[in-house]
Each structure stands twice: as C-alpha cells, then as structure tokens.
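User: My collaborator sent over this chain with a note saying "see what the structure looks like." That's all I know about it. Can you take a look?
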Amino acid sequence: MTGYIIKDAIEYRQLNILDQFLEGHNGFIAGGCFKNIFNNEKVKDVDVFFRNKRDYENAVDYYTNKEDNIIRKSYSNANVCAFYHRPSGIRIELVKSVFGEPEDVLDNFDFTITKVARYISDNEHKVALHPEFFEHLHLNKLVIDDKLIFPVSTFERMIRYIAYGYLPCRETKVKLLTTINDLREINNNELSKSLYMGID
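Assistant: Without extra context I'll predict from the sequence alone. Here is the result:
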C-alpha cells in the first residue's frame, strides 16, 4: 500500500467543483478527473467509488430520483451506472466493480497521476494523494508505482496518455514490458478491457 498524503480539502479550492457530486450519498471521487482539474482542463467525467454495495445502491437511488433537468441516466453495465449532470456537462460514473476505503481503491490504479481521492470522513472533507502526484503531473510523467492488475489494459491506457502528452518513465516501460512478457498468453478479449470499464 502506498503511503498517501492526506490533506484537508480546503487546501485545494479548485476541487470545490466536486462538492456537488459528493452530496446525497456516501461515495468518494477518485481517478483521472483530478489530473484535469489541476491542469485547468475541462472535466468530462467523475468516477465515484463506494466503501460497500449499500452505499452504491443508495447513490443510484439518489441520482435516479433527481429531476430530469438536472440529472439523467446515461448507461449502466456490469461495472458502472452512469448519469449525466446537465448543468455542468459532466458524466458521473458510479462504480460497482470495486468497493473499499479511498486509499485501498487508489492502490488499484495503475498510474500515479490518477491516484487522488476526494472524500468525507467524520464530517471532514479530505483529499488523499500519491506523494509524487504533483511532481509527475507537472512533468507529464507516467509512473506505475505498484502492482499491475490488468497489464494489457495499462498498456492501452499508456498509449492514450501518450496522446495527451504524458510519457512513461524508463522503470514504467520495463515493468510493463516485463509483466506483459510474463503473461502466458494474451487473450484478444483482454484488449480494451479495463479494471472498471470506462474509468481512467
């Protein structure tokens, strides 16, 4: 487990845009949207995770019962239930494929530039981030710091991030190539399969 830095959310005022997506449920936001926010880029989607299935189901009920002029359901699959927030144009993806505490969920992410979570704990708004998040973000550097759950998917995400201007460091390339090389076989069905289907 990575030793995440925990800060009060008030230290990052640019994250206030996310407050509206933490209302009405016990989920937390994690993943690629933080990269966009800290780079002053448009946020297209927000990935909301949950500590347990009940919290997920309550969030689905909450968004399903919102007025259609504010929220409308976009799609649902085995891993997420997505809603479109009309005022902001942001897609909210409620993730049901993995449950856990924010730090545990972040440990499943492959790149350090996605290892950030915004959550509420004991009525306090917090941010957990990888210790090298800002450095790697500033340098446009792709770094895998932990295990690779789906190395082929990580490879495909790496290609996408390269198109966005991020470059993998040498250690990341070696780790990814070694892990893929160690696979007994690469099933065609593994291509384009991500850990959460639709999550950065």
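A starting point for your reply to your collaborator: The chain has two domains: 5-133, 136-190.
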